[in-house]
Amino acid sequence: METLAAIAGGSFLIQPSVPESTYTPEDFTEEHHMIIQMCEEFLEKEVLPHLIEIDQQKDNIMPRLLDKAGELGLLGAAFPEKYGGLGKDFVTATLVNECLGSGHSFAVAMAAHNGIGSLPILYFGTEEQKQKYIPKLATGEMKGAYALTEPNSGSDALAASTTARLTPDGKGYAITGQKIWITNGGFADVFTVFAKEGGDKFTAFIVERGTPGLSFGEEEHKMGIKGSSTRQLFFENCIVPKENVLGEIGKGHIIAFNILNIGRLKLCAAALGGAKRATGVAIQYAKTREQFKVPIASFGAIQHKLAEMAIRVFAADTALYRTASWIDDKEHELEQAGRPDALLGAAEEYAIECAMLKVLGSEALDYVVDEGVQIHGGNGFSDEYNISRAYRDSRINRIFEGTNEINRLLTLDMYLKRAMKGRIDLMKPAMAVQQELMSIPDFGEDDAPFAIEQKTIANFKKGILMCAGAAAQQLMMQLEHEQEILMNIADMAIDTFQAESTLLRAMKMTNSGHANAELAADIARTFIYDAADRINVAGRNAINAFATGDTQRMMLLGMKRFTKAGNFNTKDARRRIAAKLIEEGKYCF
């Protein structure tokens, strides 16, 4: 993959970007397209015809499917070749997650295995641990799982009560406690388990299935992803050898939080794959379902829904691969600097973007499947139509990898902490925006292509800086307790990141003469036009929550100025987008 210029994590908010330095799905190589085809063939042959059996967990079907995926190299695509993997780059690994993301419960099992089930050992294990486990995890000979959540510690992971105490002979640790919601729990061979050594030092351990003292609860009966094995784990004086400590004693939080950065981005990828397939299902149904003697795809209300599905998928798609390429480039940079944990360091650099991607990807999928059911009407409520499964399976994604509320709070928390540590300079841009509020607005017009949209997005960023800067200045340490304000500003940032990413992709497609360039421009302009209203509402809600008097009035006027979008006929744009979708019969951008 061609190396493109990457900016520091979170800096999209204060630095301009250009299309030429933005990686987009149009940059996929021939090898990438071969991987897409291989994944699609695997789903069509091995997974989608057997969804009922998978949901019923018949005949050990999930482990067998993982074995088949392992034979194709899909489980170890991103693992180093020295450990039996294919050694592919991060963009390629992300693409595999996306392409298999429409596999319903299989996608969950696979992502848990080759993500949180394997990466802790790959990136924090000793060489002996890596040699022992990673080659087998890469092929699927061993299946992986991740045991963090407990009955009383979900979002507050460090409040775990599971303990690990040194055995009297000093040769191992006795783990006692309980873990819940463990994906792949019914068949995994190796678990990354978090416990407090000595009662207070949060630590990770590698625990193998069959270890005395480890037992399992029954399969959970879930709303969706029914084919995904989900069980409780019980540890009663479960003895693991000292050599199974993962990382350092008391440093388990470093493993948990760093792995989650990658997991959040990959969840977005999987959600995106599901959204693309569900969009295609909705399009096909709309083309064949007739009412009043015509296909419902000819109705404006249905075309609006189909187009909005495509717009949200396009925006998520673009933001995802923009970030994945930044992580890829940063990983290479850190590798050249001799960092053994290059990928983790790269993912941490873009932890803000990963948190935003988790939110926008899961919510794009939720929108698509919800409207997919609506397009199906009464049939969408029937298990006979797969859109109902997609609807149920989607819901967990807003909870997985940290709830969307937690990720919204993290987005602003990380920004503020990086600003305090000098990693990112938010103060100067925020002060510049305050000065601008005192000046006469610039009413000049630039007639260059996309100039209006570029100015609109620059103004979105000013609105965010204005709100975040004033809130931090006025509330200071109290801001962390004002979750509603933090989430308002996070929503502004999430919309702005997607809007800018989408515009850069449309500009790049236009500059290259891409066949879908005009439709990409329609998508970008429609997204920006609608985002302006959402950002305005979120900004006003934030301002009204902490500002009063003249300060409030000035900031509200500023928010009105910063969220003014040019006039654009979104109805006709959506009809053009829908026409292309209906012609192709699938998501096609």
Describe the global form: globular
**CATH architecture field of the largest domain:** Up-down Bundle
Radius of gyration: 24 Å
Give me the strand/helix succession: HHHHHHHEEEEEEEEHEEHHHHHHHHHHH
In short:
Residues 145-238 form the Acyl-CoA oxidase/dehydrogenase middle domain. This protein is of the alpha+beta class and 589 residues long.
Describe this structure in words.
This protein is an alpha+beta fold. The protein has 4 domains: 11-143, Acyl-CoA dehydrogenase/oxidase, N-terminal domain (Butyryl-Coa Dehydrogenase, subunit A, domain 1, Orthogonal Bundle); 146-249, Butyryl-CoA Dehydrogenase, subunit A, domain 2 (Beta Barrel); 253-405, Butyryl-CoA Dehydrogenase, subunit A, domain 3 (Up-down Bundle); 426-584, Butyryl-CoA Dehydrogenase, subunit A, domain 3. Helix content is 56%, strand content 10%. It is built from 19 helices and 10 strands. The strands form 2 sheets. Strands 1, 2, 3, 4, 5, 6, 7 and 8 form an 8-stranded mixed sheet that branches. A hairpin with a 2-residue loop joins strand 9 (290-291) and strand 10. Helix 9 packs across helix 16 (483-512), helix 11 packs antiparallel against helix 13 (404-420) and helix 17 packs antiparallel against helix 18. The chain is globular, with a radius of gyration of 24 Å. The two termini are 21 Å apart. Residues 145-238 form the Acyl-CoA oxidase/dehydrogenase middle domain. Its cofactor is FAD.
